[in-house]
């Protein structure tokens, strides 16, 4: 199993959590610099939308190339109605660095896949910090042809 994060603290936490599991290979890396190994499963839940928009096409190509025929992708994509997708009122949001995709663009990513599940989630509520937030997420489970 391979996993990466750009934050050293996240890698350190995972190294402690998975210390007894030698099959877990952890790397501190960015989306664009990670060497995606051939695999049968990609889990990218609440992560790919933090890929810089200008790098997303290249990163998606790497993800797609690494997933072997018959392999499964499970992940989520940020929709345009999410609070993080809108221009901020303050500099405390991620709007310049997140990748936002329409439903059509997400579906195009999976043209060569058998889509097992495609769910659009829209919900308003409060973040754990008590800040109002509108969530708009496309969750996809798809098998590569």
Q: Which descriptors would you attach to this protein?
A:
single chain; 145 residues; Rossmann fold; 2 domains; 4-stranded mixed beta sheet; two-stranded parallel sheet; globular
Descriptive report:
With 145 residues, the chain is an alpha/beta fold. It folds into two domains: 1-30, no CATH class; 36-144, 3-Layer(aba) Sandwich (Rossmann fold), CATH 3.40.50. Helix content is 19%, strand content 37%. The protein contains three helices and six strands. A four-stranded mixed sheet has the order 3-4-6-5. It has a two-stranded parallel sheet with strand order 1-2. Helix 1 links the parallel strand 1 (2-5) and strand 2. The radius of gyration is 16 Å and the shape is globular. The mean pLDDT is 86.
Give helix and strand order, one letter per element, not per position: EHEEHEHEE
The total of helices stands at 3
**E-strand count:** 6
Radius of gyration: 16 Å
CATH homologous superfamily designation of the largest domain: Vaccinia Virus protein VP39
Structural class: alpha/beta
Number of structural domains: 2
CATH architectural arrangement of the largest domain: 3-Layer(aba) Sandwich
DSSP strand content: 35-45%
CATH top level class name of the largest domain: Alpha Beta
What would the average pLDDT be, to the nearest integer?
86
Reported for the largest beta sheet, the result is:
4 strands, mixed
Q: In angstroms, what separates the terminal alpha carbons?
A: 22 Å
Unreliable residue stretches: none
The portion of residues assigned to helices is 10-25%
Which assembly state applies to the chains in this document? single chain
Strand order, main sheet: write it out.
3-4-6-5
CATH topology of the largest domain, anyone? Rossmann fold
Shape: globular
InterPro entries: SAM-dependent_MTases_sf
């Amino acid at each position: 199993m391979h996993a990466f994060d750009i934050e050293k603290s996240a890698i350190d936490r995972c190294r402690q959590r998975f210390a007894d599991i030698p099959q877990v290979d952890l790397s501190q890396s960015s989306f664009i610099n990670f060497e995606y190994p051939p695999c049968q499963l990609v889990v990218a839940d609440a992560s790919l939308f933090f890929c810089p928009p200008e790098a997303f096409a290249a990163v998606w190509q790497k993800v797609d190339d690494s997933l072997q025929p018959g392999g499964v992708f499970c992940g989520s994509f940020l929709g345009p109605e999410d609070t993080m997708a809108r221009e901020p009122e303050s500099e405390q949001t991620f709007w310049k660095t997140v990748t936002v995709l329409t439903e059509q663009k997400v579906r195009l990513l999976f043209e060569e896949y058998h889509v097992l599940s495609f769910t659009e989630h829209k919900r308003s509520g409060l973040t754990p910090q008590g800040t109002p937030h509108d969530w708009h997420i496309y969750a996809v489970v798809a098998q590569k042809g």
